[in-house]
Request: fold
Amino acid sequence: MSQSHDNHAHHHGHAHDNDFDPMTARVKALETILTRKGLVDRDAIDAIIETYETKVGPRNGARVVAKAWTDPAFEAWLREDATTAIASLGFTGRQGEHMRAVFNTPETHNLVVCTLCSCYPWSVLGLPPVWYKSPPYRSRAVIDPRGVLEEFGITIDSNVKIRVWDSTAEIRYLVVPMRPVGSDDLDEGRLAELVTRDSMIGTGQALDPKSARGDAQ
Reply:
């Protein structure tokens, strides 16, 4: 069993996400006031946030991955200059200015974490999940990545190297999962439906085409 940890030095030039920047702090304060006055339903807010975390937001990244799976020239561009390649699809903005794409292979599985705060590529993955910001994930992903992945339901063969990438204010990562077997007949749009947020963090795999279609196993 082998694993490696690319822990780039953190020189954050911004307020950490889990400490709230001024705009986020104002939004949180407004949400609290409106909730206390009974003007908004916190459950409804949570449902909206969940939608943007798991469905709407990650669609950008899914399109990037699907294009890399189907377009060798774009894949090469993504490997060489992920920031520009991703921007060519119109995905730029908050915490997406400096991107690097890391590709899963049969020999290597990539996992992304931010050990000091919660740096995260909002422009391609949407809102960061709560667990990504949690201290247990931020510490254990480095110490015991194989165990963490098992808790997410992923068992990585002992002969596959797990490479942990530590996001910083200077660079953020997008994991390109391996294209699922049996997806050769799918176009780019259908392929994007197989790409989950967790698979682009490394805590998940791309969906099986049969499961996604609801076909009989």
